[in-house]
Structure formats: C-alpha cells, structure tokens
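Thread: "does anyone have the structure for this chain?"

Original post by V.I.:
We have the sequence but no experimental structure in hand. Need at least a predicted one for the grant figures.
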Amino acid sequence: MNILVLLRMVPDVVEEPEIAPDKMTLETESVRLILNESDNYALEQALLLKESQGATVTVLAVDSPQIEETLFTALAKGADKAIKIAHPGKSLTTRLMASIFARVIATEPELSSPDLILTGSRTITDLDAPLAPLLARDLRLPHLGIVSRVSLDFSGRSVTALREYPAGIRGEFEVPLPAVLGIQVAERPPRYVPVALIRAIMKALWVECIPCPILERTRVPFQLLELRKPPVSARAEMLTGSHEVVAHKVRDVLVARGLVEGA
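Reply from O.Q.:
Generated one for you, tokens below.
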C-alpha cells in the first residue's frame, strides 16, 4: 500500500503579509511560511495508516521557502520518502498546483500509481477546498473531501472514509482505490518531533528534487487582476459602563439605525 501526501506552505497568519510589486502575488519575504494545517492532518492520517496497515508514505511538495525543513520534519515523523518539485517560476494558483501534481504523479516512475493520495481539504487562501477535487479530475480518480477518519480494506481494495457535513452531520462512504481524499482532521492531533531529531534526519536522509513539468496552456474560468488590502475603516465604538448602562446604549444604537422601534 503506497500512500502519497501532498503538502503546501501558507503564510503564517500571525504576521501581516505584504502585496508584491506586481500586485498579483504576496511578497513571500515579508511573511513566514508554515505547513498548511489540514495538510499536516493529512500527513498524520497517512502515518496512522502506516502504523496500522504497514503502508509506505511519500510526501510531495512544490519548492518554496521553508519547504525543506517541512519535508525533513515529515521524514522525522515517519514518512519514508520526501520529494520536492522545482518551482515553476510563476505564481502558484491552486489550479496550477493541481496540474503540476497531476502531471508529476502520472509521469514520474517512483510516484506513479499510488494507492491513496491524501491532501488537506482547504487552506487559508482556498477555503472552498479545490485542490483535491481538481487533482482527482485530472487523474480520473474518485474523490471524497472534508474527511475526518480513514480506514483501509485491502481485500476489497477500498477505503472507508468519514465525511463531515454542516450542522454536525457525518456520512460514511466506501471509495474504491486508488482515490484522492481531502483531509479536514485526523483521528488524533499531528505528532510532535524534537528539533534534535529533525537535525539528525537532515544529516542521514535527503530530499529528492525533480524538475517541474511543462504544462500546456489551459483556459481558466477567471483571471486575477490585482490584489488589494482591505480599506481601513472607522474603529469600532466600545461601550463601557454597567450592564444596565451598556444595555441602554445598545438600545439607543439600534433605535438610531432604525432596527428597532423606540420605547
């Protein structure tokens, strides 16, 4: 059983990102990049399957700042192999990243025919979770997203996954392998590895780098024209005083705006 985990780096929201001079991308030097949270859960789910089913786990990512440390950390956690794809030299949209991953998976001998592909269900820049379904479409594989639990059935060549829905509803699905799953959360929090172990792994193992494939031009449904920061508006008014005084102030605000009738 070969499991492939796709990892992405995203800006750390603790720091405020700056827009690059081209007004089309974020200035990567102005922010610290960290591993996408749901991708971290995807890695943890893969490692849990490795421990319970004896699977082989490979992590794959497109080159970006801090990516090597992230890949070595994945190796320290228990991944068997780490591979990075050379950066394409242009802005990495989710559509482009899905195309790169799909082409590499389809053409690289050591990545071809994985039994299960896991990636995070969403990122802070793509809340509608498009990477997994786009990748599944390109590879012509079944897909299930917003997954919170995974179990494998070797005899039936299928995976059983628990999918989350709004209002606390869950659905259990059996998906034939190979398949692509968008992981929202793993069965347990991502494991921690000490820095000393990561440094030891850096000396003992290596991250393989492969060239970025040349992609054909594809028509996209929309085009990004410009990035802008939200305009600064007036600060919020803080209501102070006792509960009774604050309640009267809230009432006066609602009356003044015509939301309720005055007493």
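V.I.: this helps a lot. The radius of gyration is 23 Å.
O.Q.: and The chain has two domains: 2-210, 233-263.
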